[in-house]
Protein 1
Amino acid sequence: MTRDFPKEFIRFIQVEKGLARHTLESYTRDLERLNAWASKNKKSIEDLDRSDLRKWIASLSRDGLAPTSVARAVSAARGFYKFLLLDGHIKHHPAEDLDTPQRFNYLPKFLTEDEINSLLSAPDVSTEEGIRDRTILEVMYATGLRVSELIGLKQTDVDLMTGLIVCHGKGNKERRVPLGKSAIHWLQQYAAVKAGYGKPSSPFVFLYRGKQFTRQLAWAMIKSRAEQVGIKNVSPHTLRHSFATHLLQHGADSRSVQALLGHSDISTTQIYTHITDGHLRAAYNRHHPRARKKD
């Protein structure tokens, strides 16, 4: 019976690395693509060499995959072949130091500070739902949390006295993130609303009908609130991008932003350098007396 090495690898990283469910699903799809490419070329996935993998990468780009998706697929392949190598199923690592397309040849969408203020004012805070939604928006912009981190927040993770939250990021890595006064204020307002319900039925901070808020509800709420004030194509990650961009625009150093975002690699944070470079260029063009003179 032929062994299903990709399935064994996914099971291995699920147990050993504790990756989030959506990351495991993405890696599974990536390895399914690689397996399908290998079968199409009449090869076994474990027998592919460096040249094969380069052709596979080129095929992904031709199929219209975004550079970030291609880079993630290559990362999945690297991990997979490292797993095969360590388990003695192959003798050489074909994906080691494999070149990938430039990951950050795009600028992520972020909101201006005026747009953030409009978005924060969208919920009707005379209602309980409005207070909850305002609190979610405030916390996401104040902390740069991923949506999975936000919905996973428990009451025990939030310390309003010290103004800190503990969040559990990718790979279940724990980090502490400060809360600003505005976010603390709205968390207090939301806590008062929840106190009116009596004994809480869930340990999670954000609830919908007494149960943990979901990723889908967060996406739908943020999109709806943004459209309410005339802002299109806003997602939870837009708030994360805005958090990082505004910090850098106001003088924060990239290492601090890296720590706040929970990035394991500083190169992931460098995407925001491109954004702030554009911000600096625009400021230069506006204010330098000879920025637009040719004589």
Protein 2
Amino acid sequence: MQVPGSTRSSFKHDHLLQTPDTFIRSPLAGAKDVEFIIHAAPQMGAQFTQMTAEFKAGGSLGPAPAQRFLYVLEGKLELKAGGKKYTLAPAGFAYLPEGIAHEVRALKASRVAVIEKPYEAAAGSAATEIVVGNEKDIKPAAVMGDEALRVRSMMPDGQGYDFAVNTMEYDPGAQLSMVEVHVMEHGLLMLEGGGIYRLGDSWYPVETGDFIWMAPYCPQWFGALGKRPAKYLLYKDWRRHPLGA
């Protein structure tokens, strides 16, 4: 039983833990039959937005104000982009460059992680392209040689792309080998399992469905707990000079 007025959610200057008991849903202009949980946004200091979009069958997104990345949590989407039509099932994903016209429609009731970021051009970098795939088809790589901690990268590794989206999977008891402190900011959605997250000087139990935002230079560390693997979806800005050059 939850004590009235209590929550695991916490918002501090360099991080947010947002738990499902505190989620508020709202519509957005241009979208039809979709409600959004807005997890990260410029109003909190983030340089990107991350949302969970909850579609009714037949629901559709409006135009993207920036680059857009989609990851299907539940249900099925139809995507039309670049003169092609795609079907995205659970773990299906798509990257849509800024300014690319596209249509997104739910073929059934669906939940989708949506990440949007204004594009930062870099001198000499090639143009970005539409990317569509399924995370389950990507071969995992061990993190720092630890086979108990695996990463799957869904964005291309090229100079044109200014952010990355990965999944990280931990065997029970696996943990990051170090406390990380870096210039990149993160958006993180817990997909499976749970564990303990250090954010700044605070320690939090986290579980499936939780969202975490980490500001630049926020000390961060995770260890998986329980009898099942822990897995999360992770965004970070990438490949751009801090001065914007």
Protein 3
Amino acid sequence: MMLVSTISYIDRNTLAVLIPTIMRDTGLSVEQYAWVVSGFSIAYMVGNPLWGRLLDRWGVRLGMLAAVSLWTLASTAHAWAFGFVSLMLLRIVLGFGEGATFPGALRTVVQTLPESSRARGTALSYSGGALGAVITPWVVTPIFRAYGWQAAFLFTGAVGAAWLGWWLWLSRVPALRAAPVVQSTANVSWRDPRIWAFIAVYSLGAAPLGFVLYTSSIYLSRVFHIVQGDLGYYLWIPPLGWEFGYFFWGWYLDRRVATRRTYSQIFTFGLLLSLPFALVPRITSLPLLLFALFFAMFTTGAFIVPAIGYATLIFSTRQTGLIAGLGAGSFSAVTAIVMPICGRLFDRQQYSEAFLMVTALPVAGYGLWRWLDRD
């Protein structure tokens, strides 16, 4: 599951890495690109809870086989995208298929690991997203230089096809067919304010993650004047913080007694660590900028991993696919709303306003969680 989340982020991040060249070749503006990201995010938002329910009913083996097949075809077809409309349609299909990634990961964690190891298991399976974002620039840039940006998408399709062949063999293990042990009898209910508390702290706390992932290449290109062929040397650094963040916060959480007080403390840490992100546009040193983006992505782990633990502590583990889908889907909904606004601000070179707006979102998420987290 770590590898499939890696592949999903290679597929989605290839566009982000190559977007300066793709914008030049297709005539897209930053705002149009942001709407493409928004289209992906809306489809991803819809796909997450839907795939979560399907995985809870069908099982991981069949559900992931269907989802990865769909998104692999969509990713490969990006090689023939020629403009805004075709790119938007392909991103919508890709986003819908990739909605199964984290519901499948969490369902696998619950079915194969004891409760004492689940935070680290969640961190490991979810960390593939960060790993994919780290390695994509290193893999995609040489392919781009040698064969052009279209060939990079053919590569992503080949990687997805290879995983599908391995999954057919691996997913026969009995643990993936067993019913999970239920520690809680509470089912997800829209009337329960705690489900909204989970959605708020996950989606808004993680908002800087999507912003950094989708805009770093544009910011480095326009503000620091780094050309497309050299972006790959830098774009792996920010998501490395995301990778470290997952493992650090997962390790920290497993060392503590899982109570709502524990989650409150970690969310408070995340809030305080997220505030310096607003100062990024004042940075003129490239190494310091990369560290700031690295640190921002590291901090999002303080919201994502504990939020999943918080939800699985309260709600039935039979609904883990749905819980993961609601978390990732709500994050995608926030990204869908925020990115077009940020794209317009970037077109106007209003970078300070964009970073300040994104910094305010974890503050709002924390405040909503504090207000809604009640019995």
Protein 4
Amino acid sequence: MLDLHMILDAKKRIDKKIYNTPFKKSIFLSEEDKNIYFKLECLQITNSFKLRGVISKMTTLSNKERERGVVTVSSGNHGVAVSYAANILGIKKAVIFVPKNTPESKITKIKYYGGEVRKIGANYDEAHNIGMEYISKNDMIYIDSYDKDPLVYAGQGTIALEILKQNKNIDTFIVPIGGGGLVSGIGIAAKAINPSIKIIGVQTDRCPAMRASLRDNKLYSKYNSKPSICEALIGGVGELSFKLAKDAIDYVLNVDEEFIKKAVVHMIKKEKIIAEPSSCVTLAAFYQYKEYFGKENALIISGSNIDEELMIDLLNNY
């Protein structure tokens, strides 16, 4: 399904097309027995880790497949990555379905890179149902954001390779969970290199889909979520991630949205880093579950595409 060899191959394909993002120690959060580092995927070319998986997949397409065009369903960041990748790879048609609650900052970027945006559905699961019906009726290449494609997961796993090159002593990875592609890719790569590394996945408590899936030993590909500022983490779990989870993830933590809001503000005011709420769940987990952390901790800051109005509101109120 996914192994270190596939992830190493993905790194060769994508390395010259992405940034090897910075790895920064927090002087504000690190303690005598705990060092906190941020892997700044928010500084990736499209301001999100999603580009890694997208480039990993799209660089394997044949010329005929590229001529057919690409299509995807996204809560925003994946759609931006598909639009950008289509642009640099010369793919003329890229259709991106997004839910109506997608931040305008993400939609603007999709359009800037040339993608065609279609806003449908109140949330990701609704958009996904409508988008997949379109895909079944049109002869285009589907770029999976998180569900079944190991090439996408392999691209996300390259983050672990970079981190362990930047600091070989990292013993704990703290990773956001939406569909699960990021945490699974990182977990498979990191544990293949060092089986003692601990992988902590983090969700908003408004959508504990992965934790529920593991608890019930049942894949929740759709999940009845509550409204959240973490729109990128809302929805069900990917099929491949569910299959990999027991080998890739040690703990799944659900964090309160109040801690997420405080984490966004801390990142801006103290660390001078703009990070969207969906990526700040890793810092929220430090606030709420510090006892799970190790000595050398890598927090994945997965994206920075926060809506401007939300950012201003949080800065004014926290």
